[in-house]
UniProtKB/TrEMBL annotation:
Role description: Catalyzes the formation of 5-oxo-L-proline from L-gamma-glutamyl-L-epsilon-lysine.
GO molecular function: gamma-glutamylaminecyclotransferase activity; transferase activity
Gene Ontology biological process terms from the UniProt entry: modified amino acid catabolic process
Record-annotated Gamma-glutamylcyclotransferase AIG2-like domain positions: 4-122
Domain of life: Eukaryota
Gene Ontology terms: cellular component: cytosol
UniProtKB keywords: Lyase, Transferase
Source species of the chain: Oriolus oriolus
Lineage: Eukaryota, Metazoa, Chordata, Craniata, Vertebrata
Protein name, UniProt field: Gamma-glutamylaminecyclotransferase
Active-site positions on this chain: 82
Reaction(s) the record says it catalyses: epsilon-(gamma-L-glutamyl)-L-lysine = 5-oxo-L-proline + L-lysine
UniProt keyword annotation of Nucleotide-binding present: no
The enzyme's E.C. designation: 4.3.2.8
Keyword Transferase: yes
Length: 156
């Protein structure tokens, strides 16, 4: 099992959460909520208003999201879904646990003892330069005050 941190449309209550609970795509078990230890710019960009975490450590906000434990099948699905490695790149990042629900072996308990976990995160280093000038968010909600409606993949 691998740990994945999601900050956008795959979170609970967001447009693509249905994929996280679709066992035909693999297993994803909600572990808790967290935020990036380092600051990153989270922008909403492109003609489909997609949330992107730009891989520029030290700029932006501590981005909030959810931590999942996923099996290899779900990880492969997420790589494909996120257009990895072209649109997003899956990298390890340090995530500060805010609220922990996960139950697991002593290794998981120890890893969370200092409140910081290493999780895979889909961020991007392949973005148009003008995205750096977009507003930065600390969390994403498809129906947030930003007024930028996310366009589902099946509607594009």
């Amino acid at each position: 099992m691998a740990r994945v941190f999601v900050y956008g449309t795959l979170k609970k209550g967001q447009p693509n959460y249905k994929h996280m609970i679709n066992t035909a795509k693999g297993l994803a078990k909600f572990q808790g909520r967290g935020r990036t230890v380092e600051k990153y710019p989270l922008v909403i960009a492109g003609k489909y208003n997609i949330p992107y975490m730009l891989n520029i450590p030290g700029t932006g906000h501590h981005v909030a999201g959810e931590i999942y434990s996923v099996d290899e099948q779900m990880l492969q699905f997420l790589d494909e879904f996120e257009g990895c490695p072209d649109m997003y790149q899956r990298t390890l990042m340090r995530i500060q646990v805010v609220e922990w629900e996960g139950k697991g072996g002593a290794g998981e308990a120890r890893a969370a003892a200092d409140g910081v976990l290493e999780c895979f995160v889909y961020s991007t280093a392949t973005y148009p330069p003008e995205w750096v000038g977009l507003p930065y968010y600390d969390s994403y909600d498809a129906s947030g005050k930003h007024g930028l409606s996310y366009v589902l993949r099946e509607c594009r």
